[in-house]
Amino acid sequence: MLRRVAPDSYSAAVGDPERQDLHQLSSAIRNGEDLGPFVRKAFASGRPESLLHSLRHFARSKESEIEEVCKAHYQDFIRAVDDLRSLLSDVDSLKSALSDSNAALQSAAGPLLSSLDAYLEARAIARNLSAALAATRLCVRVLELLARANAHLAADDLYLALRPVDAVERDFLDAAPHPTLCRMLLRLIPAVRSHAERKIAKEFSDWMVQIRVASRHLGQVAIGRASAARQREEELRIRQRQAEEQSRLSLRDANSSSIYSLEEDDDSDDLAAAIAAASGSGAAVDGILGFDLTPLYRAYHIHQTLGLQDRFKQYYFENRKLQLTSDFQVSSMTPFLESHQTFFAQIAGFFIVEDRILRTGGGLISRSDVDALWETAIAKMVSVLEDQFSRMQTANHLLLIKDYVSLLGVTLRRYGYTVDPLLDVLSKHRDKYHDLLLSDCRRQVSEALAADKFEQMLMKKEYEYSMNVLSFQIQTSDITPAFPYVAPFSSTVPDLCRIVRSFIEDSVSFMSHGGQLDFYPIVKKYLDRLLGEVVDGAILRLVEAGGLGVSQAMQVAANMPVMERACDFFFRHAAQLSGIPLRIAERERREFPLKRSRDAAEELLLRLLQAKLDDFMMLTDTVSWMADDPPPNGNEYANEVIIYLETLVSTAQQILPIQVLRRVLHGVLTHVSEKIVGLFLSDSVKRFNANAVTGIDGDLRLFESFADNQSQLFGDTEDSGANELKMALLEARQLVNLLMSNHPENFLNPVIREKSYNKLDYKKVATISEKFRDPSDRLFSTFGTRGSKQNPKKKSLDALIKRLKDVS
């Protein structure tokens, strides 16, 4: 390397620019720096000659330094050349010695080398023969495996054919003895695998077509089993209710035990029988279940052998998903009511198959994949149900589809699928179903009322009595009557009972098997609506329409107590069907749901009877209010009214319950009392005397005697029954007693008034008292009684009138 030297004294002494450039160039050369900048600068300034001149000057300056160095090391060079010359002679002697040794060695080793060459040639021949034998044995094994693969392919045993092919590829492909054989294997192995894949793909496609039909049949069988199980449960509950009812009626223990013994009769082997009949064989498990999964598992196994199991899993999932999507198609040409069973059975069978594949398929499909398919399916079913339910306007159609959907839910829940969204749809349309059901019942109730003539129902046979009376528990006695039997109610009662009972059964059928265990309150709520809105409203409209006569109104009023007993049966029946113990249902005390129509019917009957009595009361025009003597046989109107009332009672007591008859008679007699008081207040009666009052008193005695005679009809004591009816005449009786009293002024005594005249009104008493005239007040009577003492009764009456005027 060049040593860095300091600039010489000559360079340092130069002061002009050229000398400075030379000095810098010299420093750069000595230090081994790049001279490019100096060259570019010289050419850029257009003075390359100065650069060349500087370089030549630097070279001349270095020549002298070289000469000095050579002079300093001359002696060392001389000594080194002498050493090399002495060494050269030694090397020549060594070379001659080596040449002699080599000639001796070659003469001694010649025969040995020829023997070695012969040995190596023999060993190479042996190695070639061994390789040939090994290659032959390898070819034999390869050909044996290929022959076995061809035999299995001819027999369509794809898995057994693929095993030797895999063995050839694994064990012999890399060790093929000849390139030709290797190329043949490289061509044939993929061809065999491709053939197996195509073959199994075709079988899988055929299975996909077959499993769709099998799934529909399987779904129908499974749902049919659920329906049969539900039917057995219903029959068992019916037998239990019959046993409970018989125990309530205190029948013999033998009868009860015979009914309970029926509960043990249960066909537990119906599943195997139904499946064996459907599949035709019970040998294999899949055969028993009605479908064959062997082609699917074979295809999966072949793809596992081919190393394509992941691709086959995805292929299977996508194809089944597409198949499920096609199952979702609802034909617009066929009513959903006709196609819903096939629709839901297809989906049920699909997921029963998937459940079996999940449990026995060896990982062909995962739980997450099945859950994803189920979520898609249940979302679609919910959408279809929402759409179809929104279009339906018939309760029976809704019920039919609901029943099948609930059976679908029961079936798939046994396989672990969540069916709550389906049940939520059913619960969501509960109100719509009952509204449609109420609409149907409203029409049926109106038709039943319009068809009834409101006459007592005649039953000629015992089965009619059982069908119209016992089946609704509206009988008043456990003794079967003689036939023909005339019932106290009209044909409307059993017709309405059948309508309500059908409503209860339909409502319970819709509410049951819907995921809600205690649904009796809901059934009771809709039953209250049916009775309170539909039945009560229809009867109320019938009563208020004004087209009923007395006999018809009486029959309607007679029907209402029977309907009250029927209502108790309705709620018991709803409780039984809902699985609620009767003792719990009977604890709830409820008001009669038809109370409005019952009260309206009794009010209508009473109005009609009052109108009839008003016709008879028009005979009061013949009453002589200023008669000289009281009528000997009473007034004519009273006799006519008594005859009518006796006729009324004889007819009404055959159909009206005692309490209703009592209320009606009480209202009629109250009306009679009001009419009698109204006679005294009438503008047509200007004045009356004591003889007229005596005649009215006789009329009242006739009515009171009638009330006493009716006491035997009531279940209470005779005195209480008679007093209740006589209380209806109390106002008229107190008025007549006041007018016949010798001291009418006692009316002003609070104690006496509260005890004897508490029903009388001040104004009425004042008006009537002014009209009362004593017989001594007749025209020209003052001439015969002049100077005589004034009548005390007249004096008391005048005082009463005066005091009443003061109070007013």
UniProtKB/TrEMBL annotation:
GO CC, alphabetical: cytosol; exocyst; membrane
Q: Which InterPro entries match?
A: EXOC6/Sec15, EXOC6/Sec15_C, EXOC6/Sec15_C_dom1, EXOC6_Sec15_N, EXOC6PINT-1/Sec15/Tip20_C_dom2
Question: Which Gene3D superfamilies would you find in this protein's record?
Answer: Dsl1p vesicle tethering complex, Tip20p subunit, domain D, Exocyst complex subunit Sec15 C-terminal domain, N-terminal subdomain
One Pfam family from the record: EXOC6_Sec15_N
Which top-level group of life is the source organism from? Answer: Eukaryota
Q: Which family does it belong to?
A: Belongs to the SEC15 family.
Kindly provide the name given to this protein in its UniProt entry. Answer: Exocyst complex component
Its job: Component of the exocyst complex involved in the docking of exocytic vesicles with fusion sites on the plasma membrane during regulated or polarized secretion. Involved in polarized cell growth and organ morphogenesis. During cytokinesis, involved in cell plate initiation, cell plate maturation and formation of new primary cell wall.
Q: Where in the cell is it found?
A: Cytoplasm, Cytosol
Keywords attached to this entry: Cytoplasm, Exocytosis, Transport
Q: Where is the Exocyst complex subunit EXOC6/Sec15 C-terminal domain?
A: 421-771
GO biological process assignments? acceptance of pollen; Golgi to plasma membrane transport; intracellular protein transport; pollen germination; pollen tube growth; vesicle tethering involved in exocytosis
Instruction: Report the residue ranges that make up the Exocyst complex component EXOC6/Sec15 N-terminal domain in this protein.
Output: 55-223
Return the PANTHER family for the record.
EXOCYST COMPLEX COMPONENT SEC15B, SEC15
